[in-house]
């Protein structure tokens, strides 16, 4: 079985309240080195057999039409997971 990873992030101009909340919590854990946090989504799509170029193209289409909202999100990665 092959696995395709799709990563989706909010567009840079879109506010990210979850990322801001995480950024505010990190210093309370002694983690002061991070200057910004953006939270996105990760999808894992499983296919029969090895991942083909056609599978990746189908995953890109799914990412752009179903897995993300193109008005406020960017698809930043679609790739086969190393096994």
UniProtKB/TrEMBL annotation:
InterPro entries: PurS, PurS-like_sf. GO terms for biological process: 'de novo' IMP biosynthetic process. One of its GO terms (molecular function) is ATP binding. SUPFAM superfamilies: PurS-like. Its EC number is 6.3.5.3. The keyword Repressor does not apply. Signal peptide: none annotated. It catalyses: N(2)-formyl-N(1)-(5-phospho-beta-D-ribosyl)glycinamide + L-glutamine + ATP + H2O = 2-formamido-N(1)-(5-O-phospho-beta-D-ribosyl)acetamidine + L-glutamate + ADP + phosphate + H(+). Keywords: ATP-binding, Cytoplasm, Ligase, Nucleotide-binding, Purine biosynthesis. Part of the FGAM synthase complex composed of 1 PurL, 1 PurQ and 2 PurS subunits. GO terms for cellular component: cytoplasm. This is Phosphoribosylformylglycinamidine synthase subunit PurS. It comes from Flaviflexus ciconiae. The gene is purS. Pathway: Purine metabolism; IMP biosynthesis via de novo pathway; 5-amino-1-(5-phospho-D-ribosyl)imidazole from N(2)-formyl-N(1)-(5-phospho-D-ribosyl)glycinamide: step 1/2. It is an enzyme of class 6 (ligase). Part of the phosphoribosylformylglycinamidine synthase complex involved in the purines biosynthetic pathway. Catalyzes the ATP-dependent conversion of formylglycinamide ribonucleotide (FGAR) and glutamine to yield formylglycinamidine ribonucleotide (FGAM) and glutamate. The FGAM synthase complex is composed of three subunits. PurQ produces an ammonia molecule by converting glutamine to glutamate. PurL transfers the ammonia molecule to FGAR to form FGAM in an ATP-dependent manner. Pfam families: PurS. It is found in: Cytoplasm. It comes from the Bacteria. Belongs to the PurS family.
């Amino acid at each position: 079985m092959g696995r395709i990873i799709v990563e989706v992030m909010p567009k840079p101009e879109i506010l990210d309240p979850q990322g801001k909340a995480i950024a505010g919590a990190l210093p309370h854990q002694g983690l002061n080195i991070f200057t910004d946090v953006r939270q996105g989504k990760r999808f894992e799509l499983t296919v029969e057999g090895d991942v083909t170029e056609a599978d990746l193209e189908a995953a890109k289409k799914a990412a752009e039409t179903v897995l993300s909202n193109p008005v406020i999100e960017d698809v930043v990665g679609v790739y086969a997971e190393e096994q």
